[in-house]
Amino acid sequence: QVKLVESGGGLVQAGGSLRLSCAASGSIFSISTMGWYRQAPGKQRDLVASISRGGSTNYADSVKGRFTISRDNDKNTVYLQMNSLKPEDTAVYYCKSGPVWVYWGQGTQVTVSS
Fold first, then answer.
1. How far apart are CA 44 and CA 75, in angstroms?
2. Which is more confident, 31 or 104?
3. Among 20, 33, 40, 69, fewest CB within 10 Å belongs to which?
4. What's the angle, vertex CA 68, arms to CA 99 and CA 82, rounded to 5?
5. Are 95 and 22 in contact (CB under 8 A)?
6. Are 49 and 67 in contact (CB under 8 A)?
7. Alpha-carbon distance 40 to 23, whole Å?
8. Radius of gyration of the chain (CA)
9. Pairing assessment for the beta strands 108-113 and 33-39 based on DSSP bridges
10. Do 36 and 107 meet the contact criterion of CB atoms below 8 Å apart?
11. Which residues contact 83 (CB under 8 A, 6 or more apart)?
12. pLDDT for 26-66, tens place per residue?
C-alpha cells in the first residue's frame, strides 16, 4: 500500500514563504512523476507543479518564478518551495504520484493573509 503524506502547510502573510513536503511510502516513488495540486473552496483541483523521475519540471503560469518543485529520491520526498505568496494561493495542497501508479495525499492547508 502506497501512502503519500503532505506536511508544511500553515498560515502566512502575503509575501511570505512556505515549504511543503510530501513523503511517500512504498517503492514507486523513484519511478513516478510527482505533482503538487491545489484546490480552493468552490473551485476545481488544479496542477501547480510537477517533476518527472528525471527531474524535468512543469509549472502553472500563476506560480512560475515564485514556486519551485524538487525531489529527493533517496528520501522518497517531493518538495514545493513557495515564495512571494499571495492571498490567491490559499488552498488545500495535495501531492500526487503518476502516471501509472496514481495515489493522492490527504492534503495540507495553506492560507495566505493579506
1. 30
2. 104
3. 40
4. 115
5. yes
6. yes
7. 22
8. 13
9. unpaired
10. no
11. 17, 66, 67, 68
12. 777 777 899 999 999 999 999 999 999 999 999 999 999 99
